[in-house]
Design brief:
This protein is 31% helix and 29% strand. The protein is of the alpha+beta class. The strands form six sheets. The chain has a six-stranded mixed sheet with strand order 18-15-14-20-21-22, sandwiched between helices. Strands 6-4-9-10-17 form a five-stranded antiparallel sheet. The longest helix is centred in the N-terminal third of the chain and has 26 residues, at 23-48. The protein is elongated, with a radius of gyration of 32 Å. The two termini are 56 Å apart.
């Protein structure tokens, strides 16, 4: 628009010079149009041949840790760029060491490199970039801005605390100990042998004892324990009302991450389901570079994240794995509030996939009468259920009354300190 304005002004002046038959005014108009044309072409040409790259030393880190960003800009054209200003965009609340911008003269085939360090203070899936480049003509008539085509993302993991004394199946320390709640026979836990009876499965026949005794004997096994848990995280935005909504969401995420770490240390199976949205599904890594004549337009036109409208629950299947907790915590770094399924609908949709030898642990901001009925159905279906209520003391009293008749325990987590009071050690 600015170029068109100057060309229109020059054309009007040139037409006026022909009307009044003034050679000096026409020469001035020709010179002005030539100057504007050179400024327009040079500012466009200098930014058209730039190749931009960004390198991160890592993409997953804990809160408070640093990440080093290195930016490379190469002039691939055959002409020099008299001046070039480059700035790499990042979250404004991230403390920075070093400059994320540079002003330089870039000759043909030469490369501009700079690096800086960011401290990541909060959990989330954060965007680094794109690169904002500015140049202009030698006469100072025009400045042109262009953004890079690459954005990078880093995952900042949630806070994790040790919880050494919490039990998910009975009033006992964590670990493989015998309990009275018989769910399944565990063939790996042999309690003795007995004579074979018709109907005993062949995989329970003790072949060595049978060969030695000359008759068939069957292994006697102990019942399987209720070990491990499926963590259910509720991040429905309507459930987190009030001024402390974001703080309560982060506390719920911290609670789930801490429980996952506890179960991993105990060697038990674990998994997670949540109605939260995954920030990675909305992230845009490759974007179309925009070119404008205004820095404000360039910054406002920076491609952000798309709107995620998926209703598919985010799930980590319940199993034993040495990296299961890490997988859950990495997913928790990317979760965002949802306006889709509430936690009751989530459980009803997913409970058939969940193993009944793992406790269901909903981590929720409130327990409504409808959700209490869903939990009662889960209990009747054979699940062991323990509820963690997040920063809602009045709701904690109501939930305890509603769920007491079904034998469902409710634990109240008001602040992160409550997790540390269970065990003061912290990672």
């Amino acid at each position: 628009m600015r170029n068109a304005f100057w060309f229109i002004i020059g054309g009007v002046v040139l037409a006026l010079a022909f009307v009044i038959q003034s050679p000096y005014l026409s020469y001035a108009a020709y010179g002005f149009l030539l100057l504007v044309g050179i400024a327009h072409f040079s500012s466009w040409a200098w930014l058209s041949g730039l190749d931009c790259r960004r390198t991160l030393d890592r993409t997953t880190l804990n809160q408070g840790e640093d990440i080093t960003v290195e930016v490379t800009v190469e002039n691939r054209r055959g002409w020099p760029i008299p001046w070039l200003y480059v700035e790499d965009l990042h979250p404004p609340d991230f403390p920075r060491a070093g400059d994320n911008s540079r002003l330089a003269v870039l000759m043909p085939g030469r490369t501009l490199r700079f690096r800086y360090t960011l401290t990541c203070p909060r959990r989330g899936y954060h965007r680094i970039g794109p690169l904002l480049m500015e140049s202009g003509d030698l006469f100072g008539l025009q400045r042109r801005f262009i953004t890079g085509k690459r954005q990078d993302y880093i995952s900042v993991l949630p806070t994790v605390a040790y919880i050494e004394t919490f039990t998910i199946a009975a009033r006992r320390p964590q670990g493989p100990v015998r309990i009275s709640n018989r769910i399944y026979e565990d063939p790996s836990r042999i309690a003795g042998v007995r004579e074979y009876q018709r109907g005993d499965p062949l995989n329970l026949i003790h072949w060595k004892a049978s060969a030695r005794m000359g008759d068939l004997f069957t292994k006697q096994t102990e019942p399987s324990n209720v070990l491990g848990a499926t963590l259910v995280l509720d991040l429905h935005q309507d459930a987190y009302a009030g001024d402390k909504a974001e703080q309560r969401m982060e506390l719920a995420i911290t609670t789930v991450a801490s429980l996952a770490y506890l179960l991993q240390l105990s060697g038990e199976q674990l998994g997670m389901i949540t109605n939260a949205r995954d920030a990675a599904e909305a992230a845009r890594y490759e974007v179309a570079g925009t070119e404008t004549l205004s820095r404000q337009e360039a910054e406002s036109g920076v491609a952000g994240e798309e709107k995620s409208d998926t209703l598919r629950p985010l799930e980590v299947p319940t199993r034993r794995s040495p990296v299961q907790a890490l997988h859950i915590i990495e997913n928790l770094a990317r979760v965002l509030p949802t306006d889709g399924l509430d936690v009751g609908a989530l459980l009803m949709a997913e409970f058939r996939k969940q193993p009944r030898d793992a406790t269901l642990i909903p981590v929720v901001p409130r327990v409504t009468p409808e959700f209490a009925r869903v939990l009662a159905q889960m209990k009747l279906s054979g699940f062991s259920v323990t509820v963690f209520l997040i920063d809602n003391y009045h709701g904690y009293e109501e939930a305890s009354v509603m769920l007491a008749g079904d034998g469902i325990d409710v634990l109240h987590i008001e602040t992160e300190r409550d997790l540390h009071e269970i065990s003061p050690a912290r990672i």
